[in-house]
Amino acid sequence: MIGLQAEGSMWAIREASRCHVAGKKTILIVEDEPEIGELIRFHAEREGYEADVIASGKTALEAIRRRPPDLIILDLMLPDVDGLEVCRQVRWDETTRHVPIIIASARGEETYIVTGLELGADDYVTKPFSPKVLMARVRSLLRRLDASQHSRGQGQANLARAAGDRLVLDRDQRTVAVDGAVVEFTRCEFEILDCLMSKPGFVRTRDQIIAAIHGDEMVQTSRTVDVHLASIRRKLGALSDLVQTVRGVGYRLDESIVDDGEE
Ligand code: CA
Q: 1.10.10.10, 3.90.190.20, 3.40.1280.10, 2.30.110.10: which CATH number matches 157-262?
């Protein structure tokens, strides 16, 4: 489904990215299996990115510090420094903490995915993966980062939108509008929705959601997060399917929903 949607919007994305291609965006692929590394590099270059493959976590960390790439595709099972440690160090280092990371790993177990996301990876793809799907995730992440930088630069109103503007979250007014009508959200619910809407399509773990609402006096647990999410879904009404449960991992805002008409 992701693949199909990506194909459909590819033209628009290419058009949009054309305006800021001063130099090519650089992608560092950290992968110790040569065939997989080359396969990703092939697809990345075909997409117009400059791509390098490094097979060791230690060498990758040195290269990342020397010249931070625009995005890192990171395997977890590496011969020396493993991928989770690479992720942790990239996020610790002031000069590299902004660099987006997509984990691409055969370690599909929940604990690895959850740990990777909590260490600050932006997304994950489990092996075996389709290179097209991986590239769609790459484009999506880079496009979103560009868009948020652009709107910050323009000093635009601090809004998050989804489902073709049927859902609008206003961070300045702290309001949520569903199909044009303002719906009452508690502070926690607002923070959680903001957390999901700030990265549509990307999974947020329950602990990340708890961190996003840390100011609340109430002690938050995984269970209370689930309760908040149930309430958010009710308040979203016809748009409740926007919030998806990712089993064993957390929640995400569905970015694939297009306006399919009012009932
Ligand atoms: Ca590996």
A: 1.10.10.10
